[in-house]
Fold this protein.
Amino acid sequence: MAEGTDKVLSKTDKERAMSDTMYAQHLMKDAFPKERHGSVYAAQYAAFDYLRRALTKQITFRRARSIWEGAAKRIDAEEVEALKRAQIEEIRRERSELRARLARLEEAIAMVDAPEAGAAMAARSPSERAVGRRNLS
């Protein structure tokens, strides 16, 4: 009976593989960005507060911090699902924030362009302004 050796993973295979702990860490950091919350502690606390309400089991701040830091020994499926929901909520919040910002920018551009467009129209001769219409004067 010939025994086969285990397949040795190449370096690229090892770089692509991600543990559950690292996956949860990335989810948490995407769902609760420190830039939005102002500090790492505030982002960790927001994650803890969200997970405390989203999970059926009890969770502590220390547990949330260990997930954030990638030091958790294990990750429950319920925690991953809650973090996925939090990430989706963050994406939707960011999208609506960007849409509101775009609307404000378009309004600002329209306010700047309006006087210039009015002055340009006034500078044109009456025949140029009445494109496609008969000049009744």
Summary: Residues 77-123 form the longest helix (47 residues).
